[in-house]
Amino acid sequence: MSEQTLNPFLICQSQIKEACDQLGLEPAAYEMLKQPKRLLEVSFPVKMDDGSIRVFTGWRSQHNDAVGPYKGGLRYHPNCYADEVRALSMWMTFKCATLGLPYGGGKGAVKCNPKELSQGELERLSRAFTEHIAPLIGDDVDIPAPDVYTNAQIMAWIADEYSKLQGRNRFGVVTGKPIIVGGSLGRNKATARGCVTVVAQACKKLGIDIKKATASILGFGNAGSFAAILLAELGARIVCAEDSRGCVYNPEGMDPQALYDHKSAHRSVADFPGAKNLPAGSSVTVECDILIPAALENAITSANAGDVKAKIIGEAANGPTTPEADDILYKKGVFVIPDILASAGGVTVSYFEWVQNLMNFYWSEEEVNERLAPMMIKAFDAVYDMHKQKGVKMRIAAFMVAVKRVADAMRVRGWLG
Ligand code: GLU
C-alpha cells in the first residue's frame, strides 16, 4: 500500500488481513474474505424531465453470506466507484458480525448527484436501478437500505418496484422504509442512537463525565444531526458542526435542534446565529472531548490526525479514518470506536424492521430502542475486552470479533476445507 492509501478496498483488505493474522486463521479464510463474492455493475437509461435520456451507472456488491443474507445500504453520490462499493460491502459483513446479526454484507451505489435531480427523476432512477438489480435482491437473499443521500422515500419506490416485479408485496426486500409501508419506528435515528450509546459506554470506561463533555460533529446529515441531538440530551455540549457547505463553532455550545432547523432552512449549518464560521475541515481538529465523523470516507488522514484534540472518536460514518491516521491517533492515545461498531445501530434496527416485516407484527419505538441499546453495549464490551486482552487497537479488536464469527460460520459450512 502507498504511504497514504485512500482506496477503501485496499484499506479494508489490510484490516481483514491484520485480524486474520492476529487470530491465526487458515490462509483460506483471508482468501475468502478479501473480496466480495459478487459485484454487479449496471448501466441504465432514465428519462429526464426535459425529455432527454441520461444513462447512469450503478453497482450492487455482495461480499459474504456465510451467516445470513447480504445486507447493506445503497448510496447515491457523484463520486462513487466500484472499489468503494466493494469495500463498503465488506465493512457491512463485519459490521453485522460485530453485532451478531444474522446477515452478511452487501452495498450498492448509483453514480449521480441527487441534489441536481427532481423528485420525478429520482423516482424513475430508483425504479430503473431496482429493475436492473432485481435478480440479485430479495428479502431472503440481499436487503438494501438507505445510505449516503438516499432516504425512506427512495426505499418506498424500491419496495414498490420490486413488489410489482414479483406480483405481490415484498416490503422486506429493503429496510429504512416509511412507517406506513413496513418501516420501523426508531430506524431514522438508529445509527445516531447506536453511536451515542457506545460513546457513552466509552466515556464510562475512560472515566469521562459525558455531562461535562464537549462534542464536534463532522457531517450534519441523518446520523450526525441526530447524534448531536442525542449527545445534548445526555448533557454534552455541541461546540462544532460541519457539513459540505460550512463549519460553525461556539465554545459555549449550540442547540442541535436549532442547528438542524437552520440547516433545513438554509441547506447548511453555515452562518448559524451566535456561532463563528470556521474553514472547512476544522471540526476534526477543534478543541473537544468527543469527535463524531458522520460524513464520508477518509475524513481523518495523516494530514490532520496529529491535530485531533478529542479523547474519543465515535465513527458514525463508514471508513472515515485512514490506516495512517489510525496509527497516529493510537499513538496519541485517542480512543477510536471503529465504524463497524459505532455505526452499527442503523443496520441493527434494519434487522428489527426486517423481522417485523417477516412477522407482520410491529413494535413500539420504546421496544425498538430498548432492544437496540443492550445489543450495542454487548458488542462494545466484546470488542473492548478483545482490545484489552490482546493489546490491539479497538478497530482490530472489532475486526477480530467479527472475522472470527464469519470464519466459524464458513468453517462449519465446509467452505474452508
Ligand atoms: N447504510 C447503513 C450502514 O452503512 C445501514 C445499512 C442497513 O441498514 O442495511 O450501516
Care to describe what's here?
The protein has a seven-stranded mixed sheet with strand order 10-9-8-7-11-12-13, sandwiched between helices. Helix 3 (82-99) links the parallel strand 4 and strand 5. The chain has 417 residues and is of the alpha/beta class. Helix 6 (190-206) crosses helix 13 and helix 7 (222-233) runs antiparallel to helix 8 (256-266). The chain contains 14 helices and 13 strands. The chain binds glutamic acid. Residues 71-73, 95, 145, 147, 175-176, 318, 343, 346-347, 350 line the site of glutamic acid (GLU).
Present the secondary structure layout.
Layout: H1 8-23, H2 27-33, E1 38-47, E2 53-64, E3 70-71, E4 74-77, H3 82-99, E5 105-111, H4 119-133, E6 142-143, H5 152-166, H6 190-206, E7 214-218, H7 222-233, E8 237-243, E9 246-254, H8 256-266, E10 276-277, H9 282-285, E11 290-293, E12 312-314, H10 323-332, E13 335-337, H11 339-342, H12 345-359, H13 365-390, H14 394-412
Parallel strand pairs: 3-6, 4-5, 7-8, 7-11, 11-12, 12-13
Antiparallel strand pairs: 1-2, 2-5, 8-9, 9-10
Helix pairs in contact: 1-2, 1-3, 1-14, 3-14, 4-5, 6-7, 6-12, 6-13, 7-8, 12-13, 13-14
Bound molecules: glutamic acid.
| Number of beta strands | 13
Determine the structural class based on helices, strands and strand pairing.
Answer: alpha/beta
Shape assignment = globular
What fraction strand? 15-25%
Helix fraction, binned, reads 40-55%
Euclidean distance between termini CA atoms = 30 Å
SSE ordering: HHEEEEHEHEHHEHEEHEHEEHEHHHH
| C-alpha Rg (nearest Å) | 20 Å
Bound molecules: glutamic acid
The overall pLDDT, averaged over residues, is 97
